[in-house]
Amino acid sequence: MTTKPKPLILLPLLLSLSFSRNFAPSACANDVDTLSSVSKSSRDVIRLFRDEIQDATTKMKWRGERLSEDTIYAAALTGLSWQSAWGKNPLFSMQWGDLKKAEPKGKRRKPQETEKLIASVQQREYNGDAKGAVMLAEANFAPLEIALNPTLKTSVGGALKKMQEPERAFEIYAAPFDPGKKSTNAPELNREFRLTAFDLARRTALRREDNSEEYKRQAIAFALSLLLQPDTENRLLDTELVAYLEREGVDLDRVALGILQAPSGLPGLPQYAYVASDLLLLRATPRLLPYLMHLAQSNDVHIRSRSVVALATVAYQRQRNDAPGWSKKLTLNELREYGLSSGERKMIVQEAMEAVKSDNYRLRMAGAQALGLLGDEKSVALLQKLTKDPAYTLSPQIKGTNVRTIQFPVRAAACAAAFRFDFKWNPGGGTSSGKDLDTQKRGGQDVTNDRRNFRKEMSLPLRITPLDMYEF
Predict the structure, then answer these.
(1) Considering the domain boundaries, does residue 396 fall inside one?
(2) I want to staple 56 with a disulfide (CB 3.0 to 4.6 A). Which of 81, 90, 201, 255 is the partner?
(3) What value does the mean pLDDT of the chain take?
C-alpha cells in the first residue's frame, strides 16, 4: 500500500496564503490570516487582552519571522508572553520551582523540624482549623516556601479557600512548585494546582469590581493550559472548559490555528500542534475548510490524519439507509450537514482515498474513518478489503505470563465505518498467547513501534474519537 510522497509543507507559510474564492465557501470569506469573530464576547476578550496582544512579540523577545495574528492571539491568551508560572518544556508545567533556592523565614531548621511543622499545618487544616493552619504556616515559612512545597501549597491554599479568601489562595496555587526528586505524582499535582488556580481566578473575577480583568485573564490562561495539556491518563476533552472559554469569547479555532502556524523556534506553543489539530477535528465546520485542506497535505502523520477525518466530518450527509447509531463508532462530534459544492466534495473524497492507500497505518485508519463519514456505498468494497489489513499492535506481556493483547487498528476502523452500511464485521484481535497469538500474527505487520512522521517532542494528543484507543 503505497502512494506518492507528500511535498514538504511549511504550515505557517501555507496558512497565511490567500485561498481561491472558487474553493472557499461563503463561511470562509474572512481574511485567512485571522479568524476574528464579530460577536460581542469575542470583541470583549480582544479588548481584555489588548495590551498582551500588542506587546506579545516584544515580551517573548522574538527575533524570528513575523508571527501571524492568530499565533499572537494564541500566545497572549495562553499566557505564553506574560504568565510567570509557566515552564519551558512543557510550557504548561508549574513543577520547575526549586525549594532549595527559597530563602527561609528565620533561621534554618533541621529537615526533621521542618517536616514536623509541615505535618502540623496539614493536620490543622484537615481538622477544620483553617485559620490556625494559615497562622502556623505564615509564622514559620516564607510565602515562597509555602508556594513551592506541594503539601504546604495544598494545606494553606485549602485553608484560605475555606476562609473565603480566594485572592490569597490564588497567589499560592498559581505559583510554581517543587515536586521533589522522589515524586511519583508530579503531573497529577500540576493539573490539580492549575485547575484550582483556574477556579479561584474565575471566582475572584466575578466577586471583585476592582482588578477583575486581571483575574479574568488569569482564568482564561489557566483554562487554556488545562485544555491543551490535561495531564490525565485518559486525555479526554474537558467540555466544561470549552464551554467556559466560549462563554468568555475565546475563539478556540484561532487558538488552534495560531498554534499550528507558530514557527518551530518559538518556545512553548509548537509542541501543542497535535492537540490543536485535535481541536480542529472536534470543531470542524466549513469555516475551517481551506485550512483543513492545506493541513491534509502535511508530512506529519497525526496532523494529516486528523485533517482527513475533519474534512469528511464537514462533508457528511445523511443517507436514507444509515444504520441506527452508526456515527458513535466513528466520531464524538454531533454531525451536521453543510452545503458544500461538488468540487469541494470531490477534493475531500480524494484526500480520503489517498489516505487509504498510504503505507502508514495511521493514515489508513483515518481514510477508513473518512469513508464511513462520507457515506458512499461504493466504498463498501474498499472497506471490506481494509478488514484484512495486515497492521497489528501488541501490548506488553501481562506480568508473570506470556499473554498479550493484539489489535488490528485499520481493520477496526474499516469495521466501524462499514457499520454505517449495516455490515457487522469483526476486526479480530484480543488477549491471547502461544499458538493462538502466533496464528493471529501470521502474515501481518507489527506496527506497535511505528512512529514514522510522528513527532515524539509533541504534547500527547487528545482521545477524541472512539478509535483513538487503537492508535495511542
Answers:
(1) yes
(2) 81
(3) 89
